[in-house]
Amino acid sequence: MGAVDTEFAEAKGRSMPSKEQFVRVLLVDDDEDMYILTRQLLRQAPGTSYEIDWVPTAQEALDELGQQYDIVLLDYVLHEATGLEVLREIVRKRPHLPVIILTAHGNREIDVEALNAGAADYIAKSELNPNLLDRSIRYALERSLKLRELEQLADRLQVANARLSHKNEELEQFIYMASHDFREPLRQIMSFSEFLRRDIGHTLSGRAEQSLNFMVGAAKRMDDLVEALAKLLRASRKEITRVRVSLDQCVDRALEELTERVRTSNATIIRDPMPHARCEPTSMAHLFQNLIDNALKYCDKPHPEIHLTAEKGGQKWILGVKDNGCGIAQEHYNKIFSPFRRLHRRDQCEGTGIGLAICKKVVEAHGGEIWVESEVGKGSHFKFTLGATGFTTNTTDDLEETP
Amino acid sequence: MNTPLTILLADDDPADQQAFRWAVEDCGENVDLRIVSDGDTALRYLFRKDIYQDAERYPQPAAIVIDLNMPKVSGFAILNSLRLSPELNAVPVVVMSNSTRPSDKIQTRGLGAREFCLKPNSPAEYQEVVFFVIGLAKHYLMQTAKAS
Lengths: 403, 148
Description:
The structure holds two protein chains of two kinds.
Chain A: H1 6-12, E1 23-28, H2 32-44, E2 50-55, H3 58-64, E3 71-75, H4 83-93, E4 99-103, H5 108-116, E5 121-124, H6 130-179, H7 183-200, H8 206-237, E6 243-246, H9 247-257, H10 259-264, E7 268-271, E8 276-279, H11 281-297, E9 305-313, E10 316-323, H12 355-365, E11 370-375, E12 379-384
Chain B: E1 5-10, H1 14-26, E2 31-36, H2 39-46, E3 63-66, H3 75-83, E4 93-97, H4 102-110, E5 115-118, H5 123-147
Parallel strand pairs in B: 1-2, 1-3, 3-4, 4-5
Helix pairs in contact in B: 1-5, 2-3
């Protein structure tokens, strides 16, 4: 690309489309000699073609801003106002227009002041030469372009963020609706079936009685499913607040909730000492509770043995719940963590098929992984990690720390 | 025969109205159950507006049961109006809602509701609510009799 004569460029006017572009420069300086010099320098600039306009006063400069200039060269000392005031005004009016300050004498104070006020660069007039000026302008333009791209990116991010938080609100509303409005008709079906049973139950034939039972059972199951769905949705959108706790306490809480089930199922619980972790204690207790409950539910032995495991591998802990139950075939390893997938017939095992899906959400929310190792007939070992920030180096520290 | 206990139920769900009505019918007490389907009508009844001016035909309830989410005027608004009324602020109000928001429970209690209960799931649960409300109504009548 060769140098294009500026006169030619001026003749073509500013409306020229922007591909083989000229850089349009506005020089603000009360000294006409400076204009002549700058024009001369820019004409000698290698590579880039410049088109330069000149205004001698700050007022004219501000008036000219409506026009499409790519860059402003601003004399630091104008007669009626200092360059800094004009600079601030330009930055206010056209935040994306780069301004290079020209001064008679180099002065570090002015330099710093100018940069703080938003100048793109600062050149002492005594040092001006075609290469320096050309480079300063090109760098300023490039920075301004990058800045604009960055701002556009930030804008897009803001829009995306707003959309996301709107979606989140919608989801929250949906969850509330699911857990209330959807269950309302089911509650009524169950309720009125009971009224029906009470009012005409004694006259019902065996088949009619069975039909009624199936209706109530179906409504109850639908109610459970809707509740499970709401739980799952809530678990998947939950943001966790990590607190440093002893996982033993979480296990305590889980076992407390399951006291009755452990007792009636004649199970033995073996507990490895658990480490401290940075996690959300309530979710963690639920996680253990779900896994232990699962182990009890799918145990075909008269004497279930459940081992709560904690193995340390380097800085990371792998925690787990191991059982001596029926085990899981390898082809089901992934399936069991999907919501509403059940491996057992409903008459064999109750449940909505949501437990492990929620476990997965909880672990993922902590940045960890959950998986199963199993042997059919012998038992399963569910294992999980808590992510990079799940464990701190000092695991003997008993203090709880706020996030 | 003693005079019936007047109870006002404000609930926009016809099924819930019916279930409550049956539970009242089955309770073995002499109850005059009045049912309105929105909050606006509830307020007009309670504050004797329009057709409800006639106290003989529309007796003042000795207990009120309200749903929270109703068309036009919410249960919260009813509670607030009752709270600010010198004549009615002693009438016991029970909120019967399917809301599980803790804030709803706290707020309704703050507005003077005597009890916040989830909508019943079975005839037996409806029966419990009805007996509880009747108990409150009787107590209220006793207190007002003493006062006068």
